Amino acid sequence: MIGRTAAEAISEGSRLAEFSRLFLANRSAMLGATIVLIAVVVALLSSWLAPTDYARTNMLFVWEPPGDDFVLGTDALGRDVFSRLIVGARVSLTIALSVLAIALTVGTAAGMAAAWNGGWIDSLVMRTADITFAFPELIIAILVAAILGPGILTVIISLSLVSWPGIARIVRALVLTLRGELYIDAAIVCGTPPTQILLRHCLPNIVPALIVRASVGVGFIVMAEATLSFLGLGVQEPLPSWGGMIRDGLTALRTDPHLSLAAGAALGTTIIGFNLLGDGLRDLLDPRIRER
Amino acid sequence: MTAALELSRLSVSFPGQPDRLRVIEGIDLAVGPGEVVGLVGESGSGKSVTALAAMRLLPSVARIDAGAVHLGGRDIVGASRQELLRIRGAEIAMIFQEPMTSLNPLFRAGFQIGETLEVHLGLSRAEARRRAIELMRAVGIPAPEVRVDDYPHQLSGGMRQRVMIAMAMACRPKVLIADEPTTALDVTIQAQILQLMRRLREESGMGILLITHDLGVVAGMADRVVVMYAGMVMEEAPVRSLYAMPHHPYSRLLLKAIPRVRERADRLNQIAGTTPPASRFPSGCRFHPRCPDAIDRCRMELPPLETMPDGRKSRCWRTGEAGLPSMST
Amino acid sequence: MSAYVVRRLLGLLPVLAAAIVLTFAANQFVPGDPVTVMLGDQGGNVELEQKLRREYGLDRPLPVQFADYLAKLARGDFGLSFRYPSVPVTQVIRDALWISPSLAAAALVLALPIGISLGIVAALRRNTLADTGIILVLVAGLSIPNFALAAFFVWIFALKLGWAPVAGWTSWRHAVLPVALLAIPAAAYLARLARTFMLEVLQQDYVRTARAKGLPERLVVWRHSLRNVLVPILTVCGVIFGTLITGTVVIETIFNIPGLGRIAIDSIFARDYPVTMAIVMLFTFFYAIINFIVDVLYGIVDPRIRISR
């Protein structure tokens, strides 16, 4: 790669400064970032933060209301709701991260292959994407669940299945426009192998778009995981998931609403956080919107 | 004789960091009845802001800081929203650069012309349609009875601009502002549209403010020319005398930049540098950083727009001096 | 126009074909032999096993089974249920068939006017407190999942205030909370789109032309801008309907409504694959049909599509 000149490095630095300034000034994005940061810290430190073992049942303290002994009460098996919420954050974010990693890798690879090679590879990738889009997301999840049975694997596979085509489309469009750039032509003329051109020259240019796409997508993935777990197709007992906790709490909503409401609040707040952050990043990084 | 449209000492600002940005400053400009005034300058010189200010169509963030816009002798800067609605489209009309996007894609051409008549003259839908057909015929659209029901995407670029002109002419306005009316069109179509505007001017006696960066268009159309640079008027003169002998160095360089057919065009003459954005207007004469004739005084003091003995106006400390670098070819 | 309709109709075929192939393939991949599942404790009964295999057509080669599957689908026959031996799938789902689409349609009808007017108000009051307030409400409406919101709504409106029944499906009042819960994210999504499109449309040259003509703001907004906002909104209605109809899966489970969505979930846990696949097919079919209708409407609203292509 051509070495960057000092001027370019400076402009890069000031662009970062400009970005930080705009981001810090965007109040809703900052609120989102704060929520996400808290969720991530809670997930990372869940083993230390949880007051009790999330799976320990205690038949003497079933459906305890929130109070001194149990901050958020207990569930039908006498398990501490607060501890389960905290571990639920880890479960939820781990699944979201896995889906994101798979979808980004597969989507980027497929999109690049489609754009670079054209021809039947392009047709194959894009038609597969089209057909995936023609199915409602939950239907794909139901199909996968019917084949694999309920579980975390089902969640990860079905959500990756519905997430990669969107990324592939974006990557393909971006690589197609990049192909027209002079420095790509130069690299081709120099005999640089395609994979190297794609990874070294194209990838850095599409990273901002991928960051935007990913940050907007996390909220959706967290929500979809919770939905599947709520339906019983996702995370299985005794591992806690916010979706499953809401379902467990619904049966006792009349007498003990604390389980559903606490899990609902945690889930809702987290997704709001991701969406606020994603919207903020998109507004800042998407040049088309920034122009206006 | 009162001018059909007269801007006096008009200044407009937009929000900026840290202070508001003056994008046009003390503009003086008058268009008499039946007169065509060319407003010339590079992009970013404030031509379009001037035009929108005259229509009172500036975006809501913009503010008219000072000055007046006289339309038929009365100042419309203080006019109420209701008054402005009565004036726009009736007394002063405007056509735009992009006939492609300036028409609403979801409404028929005839309807969009007739709408003006419905609003201003209270015509019924059917009457408005009849008048729309007449107007379309008047602007040279063939088979107007058929075309009246076409959607914009079914018309060619030239036809669309004719529709725009028909729409603007509908209520016989006293002033027409034409913002780069031919820039987006093919050369042959350009000539036809200019021809049409000349004819309509003669028939109706309306004044036209023709905004363009194309000095060729101005030469063929305008009676008088106002040259703008960085939000200020630099020179004003009758078209012939300006072309024969421009007073302001900027006008001289602009004229030199026109490619001539007979010259061997080894290279296009360009004016070095670019128009500064409003946040970086220089002190002194705003043109001095690009001016080959600039002296120390130009860097310090802003020259006034001075009226010459022959009635022409120029904003330059060195107007009248002979043998300046910008005069050599 | 008719050529346009025919082409759109042909465009449905690949999707339906994909749905048919996928569901058939899924049937081959599902774990366990359905006949063994059905036999249960009669595992050793060879005669019954062969009878069931014949009855379910499982003793023939795959291509034949596929051809048979196709032929039956063409007649609206989804085969026999596994959970209720010898009962046709159509009978299992017949009563539930219209519940999910009706709920989704009702939610869409509710969400469209609310969402669009909210979005337009926000756009017209851009960068004011009202705009910011609306945007925050919209983000919340989009972010909080149906079932989480359902917990709050049922707790407040059904249990605390007693305004609506908790669950069941016997009167129209049972539809109030489900439809409202379905409509909220849809309205929020529509409002967001309407706001974005309206801001875009207000920047368009033809809006400036309309103002230059001296049209009152009322006509500029509701005639020249709104129609241009509705065109792109219409195109996303299909996607929204798809989300809504799958959203009924969750809502029906919560409110114990005997619709396709709840049956789909029940059938997954009962390993009643023919029922699951039939419902997957039906959802895909509804989704495709609504997208087709949207495309046709799009052609009617936008003359550029109606006439030129």
What can you see in these coordinates?
The complex is a heterotrimer of chains A (292), B (329) and C (309). Chain A is mainly α and 292 residues long. Chain A is built from twelve helices and no strands. Chain A has a single domain (2-45, 91-290), classed as MetI-like fold, CATH 1.10.3720. Chain A is elongated and about 75 Å long. Chain B has helices spanning 47-55, 81-87, 99-102, 109-121, 125-138, 144-147, 157-169, 187-204, 215-221, 239-244, 249-256, 296-300; strands spanning 5-14, 21-31, 36-40, 63-71, 74-75, 92-95, 175-179, 207-212, 224-229, 232-238, 306-307, 313-314. An eight-stranded mixed β-sheet of chain B has the order 6-7-8-3-9-10-12-11, sandwiched between helices. In chain B, helix 4 (109-121) packs across helix 5 and helix 4 packs parallel to helix 7. The two termini of chain B are 41 Å apart. Chain C is mostly helical. Helices cover 77% and strands 0% of the residues of chain C. Chain C starts with a helix and ends with a helix. At the A-C interface, helix 5, helix 6, helix 9, helix 10 and helix 11 of A face helix 1, helix 7, helix 8, helix 11 and helix 12 of C.
Query: Number of helix segments of chain A?
Result: 12
Q: What's the structural domain tally of chain A?
A: 1
Enter the CATH topology name of chain A.
MetI-like fold
Q: What is the class of chain A in the CATH system?
A: Mainly Alpha
Largest sheet of chain A: none
Mean pLDDT figure of chain B: 88
